[in-house]
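Quick one: structure for this chain?
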Amino acid sequence: MRKQVMLIDDDIFLLNSISTYLVSQNFSVAIFNNAQSALDQLSKKIPDLIIVDIMMSNIDGYQFLIIIRSNKLFYDIPVICLTAKGMTKDRIKGYDLGCNVYLTKPFDPNELLSIIKNLLKYHEKRRNIVSISYQNELENFKKPNLLLKHLTAKEKIVLKLLVKGLRNREIAEKLNISIRSVEKYVSKLLSKTSTRNRTELAQFMMKTNYKGE
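Got it. Here's what it folds into:
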């Protein structure tokens, strides 16, 4: 699937030139000659990357950055800022407001293409890492419930009391068994959950708000 690029610039010649080049490089490009119309489109369709000129009337590139970086739906979209300004303080302002790359006009189209590819590659890796992290958390969340199916009735009872914070002696008294027997049950529970101590075991089970069956 072709990557979607949003291009915003009030210079029509440059707008069309960049758009034509990117389309030739297999990108899908939506062009806008002002920031407001681009913002209106964002509410309908979110692009993979945005290229925005800094010097524009009404809403300039800096204001555009402030708006999208303050919206949780758009704040992580990669943004390339284009400008005729080359002053360090102007670049710093752009970076502070959330642009990923600051490209000064005139520029080589091949440089722009390289920047776009690298930003998209980095963004894709970042999204994959977040997705993997989410899946790992989801699996860890499920593990305690899956584990319960492999516990004996007595182990479940000991686990319930342990999660409540009872010590081995208190568990032994409540179940009318020896402390040694409780220690054996706790050892089995630690082994089955791959946890190192009672605290980790309790935290492991609390992920699902486990209170016992």
